[in-house]
Amino acid sequence: MIIEVSNEAARWYKKELDLNAGTFVRFFPRYSSGGGLHPGFSLGISVEEPVDPGIIEQAEDVTFYMEEHDMWYLRGYDLHVKYEESLDDISYVYTEEGAVN
C-alpha cells in the first residue's frame, strides 16, 4: 500500500494550511457519518510530527504520512491524493493495492 500525493495537491495543502517546508501532514481514519473507504469512517488530516509512521510520502518539501496503528484503513488499497482544479479542492482516490491508476 502506498500514499501518493501529487505536487499540485501538496501545493494546495501548503496554501490552505499555511505550511512551510519540512512540515508533516498526518492522514488518519476518523469517525464520520459519511463514508470513505470504510462505512462510518473518513480520512482526516492533522499537522503533526510522526511517532511511528507506517507510510511516508514527500511532495513539495512536505512529508505526508499515516501512523502504523492507522494502517488498517488502507489495508489492500493505495491512496492517491489529487488536486481538483475545477473545485479548488483535494480528492482522495482509492485503488486496489498495486493497480495502475
What does this structure look like?
The protein has 101 residues and is mainly β. The chain has one domain (3-92): HesB-like domain (Hypothetical Protein Aq_1857, Chain: A, Sandwich), CATH 2.60.300.12. Helix content is 11%, strand content 52%. The protein contains one helix and seven strands; from the N terminus they run βαββββββ. The chain has one helix at residues 7-17; strands at residues 3-5, 24-35, 39-47, 53-59, 62-67, 77-84, 89-96. The strands form two sheets. Strands 3-2-5-4 form a four-stranded mixed beta sheet. The longest helix has 11 residues, at 7-17. 18% of the residues are buried.
Question: For this structure, what is the CATH homologous superfamily?
Answer: HesB-like domain
Q: Could you give the order of the helices and strands?
A: EHEEEEEE
Shape: globular
State the assembly state of the protein chains: single chain
What is the terminal separation in angstroms? Answer: 13 Å
Q: Kindly report the average pLDDT value.
A: 91
Which band does the percent of strand residues land in?
over 45%
Question: What is the tally of helical segments?
Answer: 1
Number of strands: 7
Widest beta sheet: strand line-up: 3-2-5-4
Radius of gyration: 13 Å
User: Helix proportion of residues, in percent?
Assistant: 10-25%
CATH architecture: Sandwich
**Any idea how many domains?**
1
Largest beta-sheet characterization: 4 strands, mixed
CATH domain topology: Hypothetical Protein Aq_1857, Chain: A
Structural class assignment:
mainly beta
CATH class annotation = Mainly Beta
- Which regions are unreliable across 5 or more consecutive residues at pLDDT < 50? none
